[in-house]
Amino acid sequence: MSNLPKIAWIGLGIMGSPMSENLIKAGYSVTGFTLEQDKLDRLAAAGGTAAKSIAEAVGDADVIVTMVPASPQVEAIAYGEDGILENAKSGALIIDMSSITPQTSVDLAKAAKDKGIRVLDAPVSGGEAGAIEAVLSIMVGGEQADFDEAKPLLDALGKTIVLCGPHGSGQTVKAANQLIVAVNIQACAEAVVFLEKSGVDLTAALDVLNGGLAGSTVLTRKKDNFLKRDFKPGFRIDLHHKDMGIVTDAARNVGASLPVGAVVAQLVASLRTQGDGGLDHSALLRGVERLSGAEL
């Protein structure tokens, strides 16, 4: 019998499926629940256990990991008669790895404490590739003791794992991350269009740019997307639009001005209105191409 904690995993999407599978590979017993049967079948094929409900998944779990799209989904799975808080055992630890508002995380931690349940907010950065390769950056908010307990599990999912402060801090840092990523992708997209219209060898140009000060993880990860116009979603425009709303609202609340971020937030929003919300966020290139006269 394994001495590792029993894991319940709620949310088996683009990120959640490979992450849960990495825990299984690390020797954890993982029981999962999501709304899509094919994702449950995938978990079972990987050696996990498919549950028929949240209550069934979390009832015997020591640690409950959640990875769902946004605050409304976190609230839907956490609260109510069929939710996590009503069905998890006292002393369980919830690790919410969704990207949500900092206030949602703070509220969840308070509600869970009344039930004798502990919470960490632990959003991630690195996209689908980072999830598959278990090299995610994980920014955590919560108590030091809970972080220390969760660290071995998080080590199976990521490479850079940092406690950033009290509840909500992980989400605040994630919001800053999404601001930086969006602005970086937009800058790369503009550079791609500029280079192509100038007749430069784009592959060579991106290679040399990525070797200098203009280089970034974003350019490394998204270079092939730009070159091949492959916008299969690793992280969807719809989700980045949600995240830009989070950072814009949070910045307003603390009195921080985000002039460039506000512009990029509008560019992300415009892509959604043009039907590109389901594409990878590297599809910001399509927005620049439209502004530059291309017919897509």
UniProtKB/TrEMBL annotation:
Listed transmembrane segments: none
Residue ranges occupied by any 3-hydroxyisobutyrate dehydrogenase-like NAD-binding domain in the UniProt entry: 168-286
Protein name: 2-hydroxy-3-oxopropionate reductase
Top-level class of the enzyme under EC nomenclature: oxidoreductase
Pfam family name, one: NAD_binding_11
Species: Streptomyces longisporoflavus
Limits of the 6-phosphogluconate dehydrogenase NADP-binding domain: 6-165
NCBIfam families noted in UniProt: tartro_sem_red
SUPFAM superfamilies registered for this protein in UniProt: 6-phosphogluconate dehydrogenase C-terminal domain-like, NAD(P)-binding Rossmann-fold domains
UniProt GO MF annotations: 2-hydroxy-3-oxopropionate reductase activity
Upper taxonomic lineage: Bacteria, Bacillati, Actinomycetota, Actinomycetes, Kitasatosporales
Source organism, top-level taxon: Bacteria
Family to which this protein belongs: Belongs to the HIBADH-related family.
Keywords: NAD, Oxidoreductase
This enzyme's EC code(s): 1.1.1.60
InterPro entries to which the protein is assigned, alphabetical: 6-PGluconate_DH-like_C_sf (IPR008927), 6PGD_dom2 (IPR013328), 6PGDH_NADP-bd (IPR006115), HIBADH-like_NADP-bd (IPR029154), HIBADH-related (IPR015815), NAD(P)-bd_dom_sf (IPR036291), Tartro_sem_red (IPR006398)
